[in-house]
Design a protein that fits this description.
Radius of gyration: 13 Å
Number of helices: 4
Number of strands: 3
Shape: globular
Strand content: 5-15%
CATH architecture: Orthogonal Bundle
Distance between the termini: 20 Å
């Protein structure tokens, strides 16, 4: 089962690369955030949803501005790359679903 999940992860990442190379709406910051979210999904055994905290994602994606973080997360959501459910509770974290289709 783990091998199937790994292959699904590779397929999802390959599909993401194919899509984003032609999507002029995405910046390197969007991609950096997406790759951090992808790593969370892998650590969550390839299961949606998974919880994130703004601070941790910003640190791993090397983003300094909270405004930039929120702008990119909202755009990834509105463009259909992720589904983002903010919690507004620092201890719980927000829920993220990777949209892999």
């Amino acid at each position: 089962m783990q091998e199937l999940q790994r292959n699904s992860g590779k397929d999802a990442l390959s599909a993401f690369f194919c899509i984003v190379k032609d999507d002029a709406r995405l910046s390197s910051t969007h991609m950096s955030i997406y790759f951090v979210l992808f790593s969370y999904w892998i650590r969550n055994d390839y299961v949606n949803p998974f919880n994130i905290t703004r601070r941790a994602v910003m640190q791993k994606a090397k983003i300094k501005s909270i405004v930039t973080y929120h702008k990119c997360i909202k755009e990834l959501d509105s463009l259909g790359y992720i589904k983002y459910q903010p919690s507004y509770h620092p201890g719980i974290g927000s829920k993220v679903y990777l949209r892999l289709n």
